[in-house]
């Protein structure tokens, strides 16, 4: 499937046309601090945010892309990882979801360990197995190739993704977009293309 991308912020006068295009709700979930807000910002605005404010409850950003000649709008819902915010909002943000990004921090094994409970929360909130799911290991710029300790190895993450029918990406919301990526997984833009292609 052919996809091309443009940032909604650069659309100017085309905005009224785009307000009518099909909108898909994409949930971004994972522990607090894994980089959900930065990743959402990077995917929608094309850059790492200069200043990050803690997400209270839920927030969303939009991104328009062209899939097979049709403009669609991705609405990325950035959810707070903290239990106290999630409790009151949980049913609201799980409503009418089209895709889910599960985010963990590659330098924080605990955030990887929490994925099981995030998957379970999806199940409890009727996120069907057929809904496209993506596993995103963020902060790959902090990976130290000389030491595997304290990091989540890619093989483990890939096997988790396979077991839960997820597409896997390891990436960095921080790495500049034009830097030459050594691996296909390093390109943050591939995530948004993959989401568009699966919808
Ligand atoms: P959230 O709580 O999951 O929304 O996490 P935030 O997006 O607020 O990010 C938490 C912290 O991680 C912030 O200090 C960000 O600057 C930092 N951060 C997020 N993504 C990256 C990344 O890809 N690389 C690095 N080095 N830091 C990141």
UniProtKB/TrEMBL annotation:
It holds the Pfam family Ras. It is a lipid-anchor. InterPro entries: P-loop_NTPase, Rab33A/B, Small_GTP-bd, Small_GTPase. GO terms for molecular function: GTP binding; GTPase activity. Its main location: membrane. Keywords: GTP-binding, Lipoprotein, Membrane, Nucleotide-binding, Prenylation. PANTHER family: PTHR47978. This is RAB33B, member RAS oncogene family. It comes from Mola mola (Ocean sunfish).
């Amino acid at each position: 499937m052919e996809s091309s991308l443009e940032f909604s912020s650069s659309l100017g006068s085309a905005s009224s046309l785009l307000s009518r295009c099909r909108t898909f709700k994409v949930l971004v979930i994972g522990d607090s601090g894994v980089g959900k807000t930065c990743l959402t910002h990077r995917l929608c605005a094309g850059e790492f945010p200069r200043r990050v404010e803690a997400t209270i409850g839920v927030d969303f950003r939009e991104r328009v892309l062209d899939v097979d000649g049709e403009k669609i709008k991705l609405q990325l819902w950035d959810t707070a990882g903290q239990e106290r915010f999630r409790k009151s909002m949980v049913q609201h943000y799980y409503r009418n979801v089209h895709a889910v990004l599960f985010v963990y921090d590659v330098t924080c094994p605990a955030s990887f360990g929490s994925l099981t409970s995030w998957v379970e929360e999806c199940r409890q909130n009727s996120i069907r197995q057929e809904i496209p799911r993506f596993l995103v290991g963020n902060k790959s710029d902090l990976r130290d190739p000389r030491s595997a300790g304290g990091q989540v190895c890619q093989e483990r993450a890939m096997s988790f993704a396979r077991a839960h029918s997820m597409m896997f990406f390891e990436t960095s919301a921080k790495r500049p977009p034009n830097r030459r990526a050594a691996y296909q997984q390093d390109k943050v833009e591939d995530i948004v293309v993959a989401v568009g292609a699966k919808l």
